[in-house]
Amino acid sequence: MFKLQERNTNVKTEVLAGITTFLTLAYIIIVNPMILADAGVPFNQAFTATIIATLVGTLCMAFLANYPIVIAPAMGLNAYFAYSVLGTHHISYMIAFSAVFVTGIIFLLISLTSFRTRLIEAIPNNLKHAISAGIGLFITFIGLRLSGIVTNHDSNLVTIGNFSDPGVALTLIGLVIALVLMTLNVQGALFIGMIITAIIAFFTGQLKFTNGFMSLPSLPEGVLVYNPIQSISDVIEFGLYGVIFSFLLVMLFDTTGALLGIIGQAGLLKKGKLEKPGSAFFADSIGATVGSMFGTSPTAASVESSAGVGAGGKTGLTALVVAILFAVAAFFSPLVGAVSNVAAITSPSLIIVGSLMIRSISEIDWKEFDEAFPAFLIVVAMPLTSSIANGIALGFIAYPIMKIAKGQARNVHPLLYLFAVLFLYHLIFLA
Fold it and tell me: Structure pTM?
């Protein structure tokens, strides 16, 4: 069913990859509800909605597209929802979820057409390689920052962390363990490294289970959004058009960029194209739509899926394992929260996988400046702006400009001109 032999993998590898992805992504189960709680959404509502959205999107990705990609609430979009949409429009979270719901419906309709497929085909290969490399650098930066190896600095923005800090020391130990295992080509090296690091964390007092292990999931407010007509009316009444446009742009390019980067990392791109683009796009868009109905911010293909790909995952079986673990986690929120809150356990995987993904930078044609510089912008802007979409935006704006200057305007796909204009408008007026 999952074409294991065709993709040169096996059940053991896929299961280990799924577990690795789950442990790397498990923090979202706690972090996302915490952010949404700041917007007034009940924690239990957001917690359960997060799992429901992840389950629906990921199961569709597993069975329809057969990719090792997890669909989950996107970091960045949740912060935009909580602090920008609600903070600047002075509306209730119920109204804001109406905007997310309408966005999800539009996104779903776009995904059912050939538009997103044509967009991927329109992206030059150098920019595709840059997207993969940029995501790698981005998730490495996330791992370094979450672990404390890199920390804030008043003048320089970031600086080296305190290596005497127990959390940083544990991360370094976990990183060494994982690196040694990978150097020795141990199967499931990242997952085994996490287990060993977790054991060390427990015996050093950094991993504690103070809130017990189990609790029943609940939706205290039930289904929040279910009436499309009312949702559209809310959007019109409160003038949330800019919010929907921002959500659409970020969802479109965050997800498309992540899909290209991670599937490319898995070696599943056929001549730069997705094998089942329609199914993959449907999976990520349905997650956003369903999630908004129950009470969570938009979903996207998670960059943390690359941890499972780095552990050998190549099929939808990896995604299925993650979905099962998320369903189980719904009953073990205190346990999952305890493990995912110890950044030292998961950060080494992010750092290492980033190094694997950035290898695609060698595929970029650095000899042609008009090809190299837009790619360079994508690579550096993703980690420096903490956004996949921002990195893609700058690259997409620079590319047609440089081609026009070189007298090769006709070599640029019309869609790239369209999105260059849209991205420029977004960065100037909406970002």
Answer: 0.76
